[in-house]
Amino acid sequence: MDDSDEWFRTRLAAWWQTHARDLPWRFGRATPWGVLVSEVMSQQTQMGRVVPYWQAWMARWPDAAALAAASKADVITAWGRLGYPRRALRLQECARVVAGELGGELPRDYDGLVALPGVGDYTASAVLSFAYGVRVPVVDTNVRRVLSRMLLGEESRGGAASRAERELAERSLPADADRSVTWNQATMELGAVVCTAKAPLCDACPVASRCAFRRAGYPGLGERRTRPRQRFQGTDRQVRGLVLDALRSLPAGATLERATVLALWQDRAQLDACVASLDEDGLIELLDGGDVRLPAG
Ligand code: SF4
């Protein structure tokens, strides 16, 4: 897209104004810390599912200092069923750095943000754009799919972002900072709710009349470079989740006895490996005799 082509930007900005989901961390209602928390929670979980967790989390720990002072057990419990619970511990590590070394304020620059525990390129860019209004491309799976389809007429096949995809994101970004934020949000939102991976809702799409992918007949629609996500049933993720769920349901500080752990899953070898990996990840403490508990501290 060259700079003279304002059509996509105007259409998507207008669509964003009228169709953006009213998520509680949007429209300037959240602090930069709150935006960071929303981005970490949304990384592998749909935003709609994140909302109640984010609200409860921010009510309890409204800033980095509050989260830094929380116990790990409380943090893991509050993460609930968001999945990939190591994210919770990384978020707390991040809070401890922000509270302990940075006076409670998130850095306002890319290098400072990516230096924080658990903050990668995507999260740093999202915080810069959405919390601080900085002109920077925010490149997630949804944005890549939308840009690739509507501007190039090609399917984005997942995996790591290619150089071409990053260049496209940079090239298409409006020069004006405010407009760049809207562009990032609108393309991401379009990918989440309209231009979805397998079944894009082109009849509801504001750019359908000029979409290159639609015009080309949807070549390779839904094709992925990566393998489809592993089914959940029977996986280590499921077993780890069962152990953590059992611990979360106990009173604070209580221990889950070995016999109760063993009753959670039939395959003893898989169960023991999962308990060991949870211990290694710092998500539980494995005690002598095989009892487990959520970590102190
Ligand atoms: S017209 Fe269809 S394929 Fe093109 S951007 Fe819109 S939803 Fe996606």
TrEMBL record:
Domain of life assignment: Bacteria
Name the SUPFAM superfamilies for this protein.
Answer: DNA-glycosylase
Any Pfam family the entry gives: HhH-GPD
Gene3D superfamilies xref list: Helix-hairpin-Helix base-excision DNA repair enzymes (C-terminal) (1.10.1670.10), Hypothetical protein, domain 2 (1.10.340.30)
Give the keywords, sorted: 4Fe-4S, DNA damage, DNA repair, Glycosidase, Hydrolase, Iron, Iron-sulfur, Metal-binding
Reactions accelerated catalytically: Hydrolyzes free adenine bases from 7,8-dihydro-8-oxoguanine:adenine mismatched double-stranded DNA, leaving an apurinic site
**What EC number is given for this enzyme?**
3.2.2.31
State the signal peptide span: none
The question of whether Iron-sulfur is a record keyword is answered with yes
Annotated HhH-GPD domain ranges read: 41-193
What cofactor does this protein call for? [4Fe-4S] cluster
The GO terms this record gives for MF are: 4 iron, 4 sulfur cluster binding; 8-oxo-7,8-dihydroguanine DNA N-glycosylase activity; adenine/guanine mispair binding; metal ion binding; oxidized purine DNA binding; purine-specific mismatch base pair DNA N-glycosylase activity
Q: Does the keyword Metal-binding apply?
A: yes
**Which InterPro entries would you find in this protein's record?**
DNA_glycosylase (IPR011257), Endonuclease-III-like_CS2 (IPR004036), Endonuclease3_FeS-loop_motif (IPR003651), HhH-GPD_domain (IPR003265), HhH_base_excis_C (IPR023170), HhH_motif (IPR000445), MIG/MutY (IPR044298)
Coiled coil start-end: none
Q: Give the UniProt record's GO annotations in the biological process aspect.
A: base-excision repair; mismatch repair
- Report the sequence similarity comment from the record: Belongs to the Nth/MutY family.
Report the protein name in the record.
Adenine DNA glycosylase
What species does this protein belong to? Answer: Bifidobacterium pullorum subsp. saeculare
